[in-house]
Structures are given as structure tokens and as C-alpha cells.
Amino acid sequence: MNYRFKQFLLYIANGLLIVAIVFTTGKLLNTTRVFSQAGMNWSISGVLSTLSASVITTQSINDTVSDNDVQNILILGIAGPGNSAPNLTDTIILASLDKKHKTSSLISFPRDLWVKIPGKQYSTKLNSLYQMDMNNLSIIKSAIENISGQKINNYLRVNLSTTQEIIEKIGGATIDVKTDIYDSGYPGPNNSYETLSLKKGVQKLDGATAIKYMRTRNQDNDFERSARQQQVIKAVAEKVLSLNPVWHFITYFNILNTLHDNLYTDLSIFDLKNLWSAVYNIDPSNLATYTLNNTDQENLLKVSSRDLGENTASIVIPKAGENDYTEFHSFINNILKK
């Protein structure tokens, strides 16, 4: 591990300790002043040298995190190298952070949603848009803005191995499995198959099993898979936020180390620090999860199909009609106003 990376991790770790002290002692201190008192005066040259050392893979952006009360972040999860279809997005989530009311909403979009490709006259599944522009994610960002009616401020992209490692480092994820799961056709390495078998009930899943739980859909559908993904994400978030930065310093350090070279984002180091401070303010009980689905409760989508050459693809489209997202916008607006 090079010196600059070590220095960055120590800066962040110290920052987490300071945030913890501020919150646990109840001192109403300005964050900038706290970091300054701790000897963490971030010089422009220091930040540039840290970024040039590829501490976190980031894109150059003109706008920093908005000072507005609401920040919308597009979260993408890909299978990553070593998997079939490594650049398809299994996870597509809009995370909306309301800093004023200290709440957060996670809204999952089905990967099989049939969408018009921005700037083109033809359509494809939502999960294939990311690979069309993996540098600045302009295509999938534009599509999600159109579908949701919300402006995307920033994005984060991680792969399955990163998620699995983080779950391992926090000691697993406690999940309430809603129904028995048996999938004998779960994709394994080298085009093989594995069996996933889980009984109904609350249980702690290790990293590998949690990933399988998130991805399987052999006995249900994409909507149920989205719900399971949110279950795991919420469980991990609650676990991380419950950790004490003082007593669990090594865990924090290991998580940050795992994110090195694996987190792809347009958030700068400053933005990530501010984002952490905002997230730390949110009680896990104020993290709400939603899925665009075709249940009786929401009934926003309908199942359909499209002929793709010699194959027929199963897709979903808005109940109101293909590319008509009016009901989506109303649903999401109501969520974010709660």
C-alpha cells in the first residue's frame, strides 16, 4: 500500500473518529472547524496529488455536491470481471438523501424494464445501458432521470466482489428470508451451476450467500430480486452505521481498503466526506425502500415480451404504456414528499 493511500485512509479514519466524538458528546461544532482543529487542512495540491494516486477512481466533474436539502445518487451494481455478462447492471437503485429531514429512500428499478435508448430510435433492457457508456454513465443517468422524473446529482458503481468483501468484513448480513429458496441453477464459475438452498426465517448470511440471495430469481422474478437486494443493502447499512468508529476502527479501515480501486464514482474526496456526515445523521429506521413493480399495491408495470432475432426476451413496461412514465413520476414524487 503506497504512502499516499495510507495517508488518505488515516485522514478518513480520523474524520470518522471526529464525527463520532461530535455526535456522542453532543457538541454542535462546525464540521469544517472540527477537521481544521484536527490538523486536516486539505490543501488543493494535497487533494490533487491524492487523486492522481488513484485513491478512488473518480471522474472530473464541474459541479460538486449540491447544497440543496435533497441529493439523488444513482447506485449501480455490476457482476464484474470473472462473471458472465460482467457489465450488465443487476442492481439499479436511486438513493434519495433528504438532509433536512434526515431521511433516505432507496428506489429499485427492474433490470428488465424496456426503455428507449437516449438519443436513439430503438429500445433495450435497462440493465444494458451502463455498458454503452461506462466512462461517465451519461446514457443510464439520462434514462433514470427520464424514468423517475428526478435529477441525478451523482453516481456510485460497485461490483459483486466488493459487496461480498464488505459483508464479510462486517461479520455477515442478518436477513429475514421471507420464503424457502431452492435454486439448483444458480450461475457458477466457468459456465457451471451451483445450488442455493435457504430456509424461511431470520438468519445471518455470509458474503457469498448474501450475493446469491440478492441475485437469484430462478423461482420468482425480477421484482422479488429487487426486494431482496434492498433487504441486503439495508441490513449492511444498518450494521455499518451501528459500528463505533473508535472500537471498530479496524473494521472501518478494512472497508475503506476494500473500496480502494473498486468504487467508481463522480464524487470527490470532499463530497464523500460530506456524504458520510449526512448519512451518519440518519437513523436506520428512517431508511425506506421501494421497488417499482406490478403488485396490487402499486401496479405500475406489466410483463411483456420482445422478439430479439431468434430469441424472445421477457421484459416489463409501464402499465400506462411503453415509455409512458407519468405514473412512475407520481409514485416517486409521493415517496420523496413523505
From TrEMBL:
InterPro entries: LytR/CpsA/Psr_CW_biosynth (IPR050922), LytR_CpsA_psr (IPR004474)
Pfam assignment, any one: LytR_cpsA_psr
Domain of life: Bacteria
Limits of the Cell envelope-related transcriptional attenuator domain: 89-241
Residue ranges of the TM segments: 9-29
Similarity field: Belongs to the LytR/CpsA/Psr (LCP) family.
Name this polypeptide is given: Cell envelope-related transcriptional attenuator domain-containing protein
